[in-house]
Specification:
The complex is a heterodimer of chains A (114) and B (113).
Chain A lengths: L4 E3 L2 E4 L5 E6 L6 E7 L5 E8 L2 E5 L6 E5 L5 E5 L8 E8 L9 E2 L3 E5 L1
Parallel strand pairs in A: 2-11
Antiparallel strand pairs in A: 1-3, 3-8, 4-5, 4-9, 5-6, 7-8, 9-10, 9-11
Chain B lengths: L3 E2 L4 E5 L4 E7 L6 E7 L6 E7 L4 E4 L2 E6 L4 E6 L8 E8 L8 E2 L3 E6 L1
Parallel strand pairs in B: 2-11
Antiparallel strand pairs in B: 1-3, 3-8, 4-5, 4-9, 6-7, 7-8, 9-10, 9-11
Classes of the chains: A mainly beta (114), B mainly beta (113).
Chain lengths: 114, 113
Amino acid sequence: DSGVTQTPKHLITATGQRVTLRCSPRSGDLSVYWYQQSLDQGLQFLIQYYNGEERAKGNILERFSAQQFPDLHSELNLSSLELGDSALYFCASSVGAGAYTEQFFGPGTRLTVL
Amino acid sequence: DQQVKQNSPSLSVQEGRISILNCDYTNSMFDYFLWYKKYPAEGPTFLISISSIKDKNEDGRFTVFLNKSAKHLSLHIVPSQPGDSAVYFCAASAIAGGNKLVFGAGTILRVKS
């Protein structure tokens, strides 16, 4: 158990809908990362927050947005869902935000868009 | 544009033998490399890492080798155990990129008893 929690574990929805994925980092970690893993691919970095502020951005679609709240939990919002958004979404956390800081991953949320 | 590639989707080895997982990268700016292990229904867990200033790092049964000129790294597991059966991801980062990790597609390792 990494100490990172993600809810829900599974989510099934229809195209065009909007969903929110939630992540609670390990106690004491200030940085949260979101990654997307599509079928047979590696994890793709989406976005990083550090202590409430956006720190780095990857190839995140405009239909996706995220935020980190004062209690440090984070939410990833996915809107106007398409079939291709079906994937595993992982959240990770780390103490700091700089390079070489170990990231601890949650168990992921499996999103299925029908 | 796959900057980190794991060309073997799967690998099967006998218990007690050596497992060698390979990874290639294209971005010369990468200066830190990691291996993660993932069991079903769990998130990836950190296994071992290596900085670009080294060519080898060892931790128990796990050794990572880095060949910068070939832009290649490998993970050796000796001896392999059935509990090592998992998906192994190679990842890389560049100090200029902060702590963003770029992952390969993973290699499924099966250790047969």
